[in-house]
Predict the 3D structure of the following.
Amino acid sequence: MSIITISRGSLSASAMLAAEVSERLSWPVVTREDVLESADKYGIKETGLGELSFIEKSPGFLDKMGDRKKQYLVCFQTALFDFALKGNFIYNGHLAQFLLTKVPSVVRVLLTAPDEFRISSVMKESGKSREEAVSHIKLTDERRQKWSQFLYGVNWRDPAYYDLVFNIERISIDLAADILADVMSRKEFKSGKEARQVLADLHLASIAKVTLQQSPRTRGSDVEIEGNSAEGSLTVRGSCPRVGAKMWENDIRTVLSKVEGVKTIKVEKTVVGYYE
């Protein structure tokens, strides 16, 4: 399993690049909408965040409260892992690379261009006036940045978060597709048995987190989970109140015992007082 993620600003070039690479590699293209549909079974609709467009809206004040963001991310991540377990794919969307940081053989791509090129492209693609194109680009950039800060606390345009950055004013979509296809043919980005095991372990841990979020007994639990799919084991680490610590652990064990394939559950809890 290998994955290419493509992020972009206000242009349609990412969809064009994804299609070109898909043709060269015979890999399917997966979009945000595809992942949201797959994540429906994990309860992502309950968060309400999946219905918000990255372009049309910014995350509001209420979206920063409670556990909706955490639930949205774990549901979306689990669905991404589902696609990865099926084989290689190209993700054409925004920010997914931040949910795949522990997955081997992921190539993160950013498409960029000078402002004048972007303005001209938006005018040509949409028929907008120059003033409308400038306003559209500014608003899109602001909202994408707010989303990246809200969900991951990062500046998504920082090149440090990417492996390849293409300036599409100088690098054509066709050339970028050729480069990507060549990169993915190299041994460094071909996944083997070890990579598939890492993914299977991450998927098991992610399913466990979703299961905790779905149960009223454990929803909102602040825990980290490691999975070992080969052994069918989970290791749960988290903090719990001094009063009710035993019940907290029992709830964790009871809920996670329902996860398919899990045989053993290890809970490592840190007990804290009310004011610690």
Q: What stands out?
A: Strands lie at 3-7, 29-31, 89-92, 106-112, 164-167, 223-228, 233-241, 264-272. The mean pLDDT is 89.
